Amino acid sequence: MDDFKGKVAVVTGAASGIGLGVVERFVKEGMKVVMADVEKGSLDREVARLAGEGADVLGVICDVRDPDSVQALADRTISHYKAVHVVFNNAGVAPGGPMLETTPSDWRWIVDVNLLGVAYGVTAFGPIMKEAGAGHIINTASEAGHVSSAVLGMYTATKHAVVGLSESLYRELEGTGVSVHCLCPNLVNTGIFNSERNRDDGAEMTPAQTATMAPLREAITELGITPQQVAGDIIDAMRNDRFWIFTHDLTKQALATRYKDIESGSNPSNPYESAEEIDTLTKLSEL
User: I need a labelling partner for 4 at 20 to 30 A (CA). Which of 86, 93, 108, 222 fits?
Assistant: First the structure.
């Protein structure tokens, strides 16, 4: 797809962070955008702002943990715009801390959002796009979908799953006209490390989790690229029908270290210790 003017896009996690940056870029490209988010206040504010600037946007409250909510999002999209051309399964959360201190409810929350939220988006919108014979499905994974850190075990597990899901979906949809893309960003300046604000089970962070999140929040603010940069990478990947979307050169360096370990039969090493950009996740992996 080279010309996005008049096309319909759906973005989850659209009221902030990468989602909002991508919405803004889609609008700039002339697209109509369904903005889905679980945070009503933020969603209403951003929809009103963009509509006031002339954008054709529709806000829909959606909890991606609920398959019925995601299906309702698909139904609302088709009833309002009569089509869907781009689906960005982006909503995600990122709690941190030692895995040995996690609880079943911790796991259920992150798996429901990060993995099943993507799966529900795929199964709700994928058949529509396949029948139409065209479109793009973009799933937000992470650099953590390929390499690991000692402080983001649950997040890493879910993002590895999204990478596998996306690769399999790519193979399933080859030849149908529907392109699949896997977004694997390194640090982006968003509120992802404050995502416990949307947790509704009453669970509170442990002292170890709190101690972990503080430097993560500092790092993402100091070192993170802008959501607008990520949006540009996504547009470029769609125009060039490119599956992998890496936002940082550091990611490929980290991947090379991991596969070197695999080839040599070595135990997992720090994937950043030989990278040029040591100042990013090396600090986090040593926490």
Answer: 93
